[in-house]
């Protein structure tokens, strides 16, 4: 008798196998090697968003040092400025950034920081917040025209400010869990200080990775700020920049899904 050919797997079996494979992949720890490339993209996003939001609403959503100065000077400037109540928007940005840092740090800690699924989820949340903000402005729920300085505050502006400040904390938490604090992704003051005070500043190009990351991080924020300001000024609206920034964050999310896993070393 001829041997009977094995029957092909059923659709349910294939689906079950796929689900198991996906769960297994999401449960892997990713390699931190070359992850600085993704953090440098985050620097670009920070520059894009911060220059755009400042042009439209007179506050930052990533650079909380500037917002702290705005809050501190708000009482003394009062209404003798083209940004009345700008200090209130800056205070909301600072508060939402702190809440974002609190959320993302504990979210990562609870799910295991370097797990692929954790990084995919955190950057998916960030990109979703940016897309939601862009959609709100696209739908004209909030005015996104530039320049947007007026003699009174439109309190609906706090919606995009709050959403974008919250998500921006996530990428800074990401730089910490990847142990690359030399690319904080949202500030340049400490980066410039660490760069200038580096005892190995003049070392050859390939022998000082931290110095190289600091330079590229600074340039990423600078280039993003120039591009964000130029695009928003040309378009007269800020949603184009936000769609672009959200797309970059989504690209980072997909990259984490495809990123190499952490290599297991034999004991």
Could you please describe the fold and organization of this structure?
The protein is mostly helical and 267 residues long. Helix content is 66%, strand content 0%. The protein contains 9 helices and no strands. Helix 5 (116-138) packs antiparallel against helix 6. It is globular and about 80 Å long. The mean pLDDT is 88.
**Overall radius of gyration:** 22 Å
Order of helices and strands: HHHHHHHHH
Q: Round the mean pLDDT to the nearest integer and report it.
A: 88
Give the end-to-end Cα distance, rounded to a whole number of Å: 52 Å
Task: Supply the helix-strand structural class.
Answer: mainly alpha
Q: What is the molecular shape? A: globular
Measured by DSSP, the beta-strand proportion falls in under 5%
Oligomer, anyone?
A: single chain
Largest sheet properties: none
Helix content: 55-70%
Total count of strands: 0
Low-confidence spans: pLDDT under 50, at least 5 residues? none
Count of discrete alpha- or pi-helical segments spanning 4 or more residues: 9
């Amino acid at each position: 008798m001829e041997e009977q050919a094995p029957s092909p797997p059923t659709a349910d079996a294939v689906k079950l196998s796929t689900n198991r494979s996906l769960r297994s992949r999401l449960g892997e720890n990713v390699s931190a090697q070359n992850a600085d490339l993704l953090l440098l993209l985050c620097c670009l996003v920070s520059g894009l968003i911060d220059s755009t939001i400042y042009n439209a609403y007179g506050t930052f959503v990533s650079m909380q040092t500037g917002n702290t100065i705005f809050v501190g000077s708000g009482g003394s400037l009062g209404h003798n400025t083209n940004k009345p109540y700008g200090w209130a928007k800056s205070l909301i940005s600072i508060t939402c950034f702190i809440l974002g840092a609190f959320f993302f740090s504990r979210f990562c800690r609870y799910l295991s920081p370097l797990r692929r699924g954790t990084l995919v989820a955190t950057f998916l949340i960030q990109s979703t917040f940016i897309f939601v903000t862009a959609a709100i402005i696209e739908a004209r729920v909030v005015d996104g025209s530039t320049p947007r300085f007026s003699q009174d505050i439109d309190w609906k502006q706090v919606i995009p400010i709050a959403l974008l400040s919250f998500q921006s904390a996530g990428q800074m938490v990401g730089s910490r869990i990847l142990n690359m604090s030399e690319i904080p992704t949202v500030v340049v003051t400490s980066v410039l200080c660490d760069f200038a005070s580096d005892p190995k500043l003049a070392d050859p190009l390939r022998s000082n990775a931290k110095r190289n990351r600091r330079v590229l991080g600074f340039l990423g924020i600078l280039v993003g700020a120039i591009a964000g300001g130029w695009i928003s000024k040309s378009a007269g609206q800020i949603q184009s920049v936000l769609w672009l920034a959200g797309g970059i964050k989504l690209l980072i999310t997909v990259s984490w899904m495809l990123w190499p896993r952490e290599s297991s070393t034999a004991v």
